[in-house]
Amino acid sequence: MKQRLHFTFGPVQEFVSEARKTADLWTGSYLLSYLAAHAINGALEAGANEDDFFLKITGNPLLEAVRKPDKPPENAAFATVGSLPNRFSVLVASEEEGRRFADAANDGLGMAWLMAQDACWRYLTGRHAPLEDVAHVWDRQVESLWETSWAVSDDPRALARRKLMRVFEASGEPGRKCTVCGRREELGNRGFWQPLSKRLGAGFLDAMKERLCAVCLVKRTLPRVGEEAFGWKVLGETFPSTPDLAADPWQRKVTRKNQHEEARDGFSAAVEERFESAPGTYFFPSYREDLPEPVVRGLESALPKLLGAVGSAPRPAYAILVMDGDKMGERLSRLDEEGRVELSERILDFSLRVRDAVENGKGRSRLVYAGGEDVLALLPKDRALDVAWMVRERYKETLEAFDRRHRGKLGDDSTISAGLLYCPMTLPLRTALREAHRLLDEDAKEGAGRDALAIGAWKGGGEVLRVARKWEHEDWVEKLLEMTGVDETPYPSRFLYQAQQMVRDQAGLENLEQLLALEYLGSREEKFETQNMEEAEERISSLMEISKVDGQLDPAIFRLVRFLYEEGA
Ligand SMILES: [Zn+2]
Q1: How far are the Cα atoms of 185, 351, 512, 553 from residue 505, in angstroms, in the given order?
Q2: Per residue in 5-56, pLDDT tens?
Q3: 214 CA → ligand 1 middle, Å
Q4: How many Å lie between the centroid of ligand 1 and the Cα of residue 183?
Q5: Which of 34, 109, 128, 199 is most buried, by the most CB atoms less than 10 A from its CB?
Q6: Ligand 1 mean position to 142 CA, how many Å?
Q7: Which tens digit of pLDDT belongs to each residue from 361-387?
Q8: Assigned CATH topology for domain 3-237
Q9: From ligand 1's centre to the CA of 363, what distance in Å?
Q10: What separation, in Å, do the N-terminal and C-terminal C-alpha atoms of the chain show?
Q11: 316-471 falls under which CATH superfamily?
């Protein structure tokens, strides 16, 4: 039996979710992939064979960039999207060789982190950040951050089984805690941050609300020092904020309609920014106090006029999409060597193509991570369902092509599941990420039995709906896309509301469907007018089909359709 070195490091999920801004989230995720690339590079330089990795690494753009810093890869995604997980497995001849590769991986990762945090230190002290006074805190925090762990075994799940990764705790951190992670000591009080925040310019740090630890400060600073820290410029600070994502559907819609040209031009002149690329914060009054004085003055005169002319305002919500291949490890373990190599190639190909599906030029959709069969993306509400469906379709194409050659080998496990959360732009990112992952793990995978999509929505501080189905249950996703992909709703909002109540209160009633058709027939608005019951039943037939689970109507679908209309743009 062949032995493998299993190498892993962390913390991962908590490190990524310790983010106040979407840019922090992006940086955390990207940094993890970058460090993983250096760990792999370390093992390769110690003699590990590129072809012996359990998951294919050849052709990964980020790894290529790390291995050949002088020759940036053609695929520009290396500088914008994280694409390597925090673990790898590689064939080794002996325990001794495994130890050597693991040490080299550990050194590669450690050195890359040292360089990255040092670039931040130099940038900040170069702008007179009084870091020398707290150097002992900085060193303690950055040095104790990463835990690595490894094992040599012939069992592909060795690491998970042996639970070698201890749960990361910033134990013994004294004093007041960082406002972002809430776990490590803050570097200083407001007197420390206020002058620093001024020197670093608008948008870097909010000294009224934020006091960071060294790790969270490094995360915040990294995008500014991409060249020194990573060796290339990174996306970082231009990552859309949650208000950018929230305002995006509305900005696109208003731009599409030529009749508002005058109002848009007036707005652009007043704030000295083109309407279509203006930051989302301009359109939500709650951000007014964070904006520069001239912009605020411009907005006070121009925004009411614009909103009046357009007749609508942006909704303060956006979407988070997380996806994960079902049972990928088991699937790969079942295949022979040749099959595993080929499937692993397909998986890499899939992860590289995800970016096109997410960022297809329409709006501010952004892919944060796509590695193996994992996907994390932040999306404007009106694009979210479409993107989830497209990514799933690409996944299916990729795996079906494989299955045609290796008939039966994959069984029913060659599927992917998704959690899609619609949430308020002010919901803490950590909460939003946790909820999106819960939808994926508990609702799509456990509840709906994998190969499924779970959709959740929050309004204010709480959940308003949650629904999970197999992707192809009565073609519900495609039907939802048809229903909501148009400007005009095919159902009156009042009908959807009434229907939801009726289904909830009278579940199991024999003639419920006729009652619903009757309710539709009674809609008074002209555009929904129907002549008779038959026509009304026809109009609501799609809705009935996707609402049914085991013959019973589910009120959550009516709530979802209503939500997608109301929050669509
Ligand atoms: Zn922190």
Answers
A1: 52, 44, 11, 11
A2: 999 999 998 999 999 999 999 999 999 999 999 999 999 999 999 999 988 9
A3: 7
A4: 6
A5: 34
A6: 11
A7: 778 999 999 998 999 999 999 999 999
A8: Alpha-Beta Plaits (3.30.70)
A9: 31
A10: 57
A11: Reverse transcriptase/Diguanylate cyclase domain (3.30.70.270)
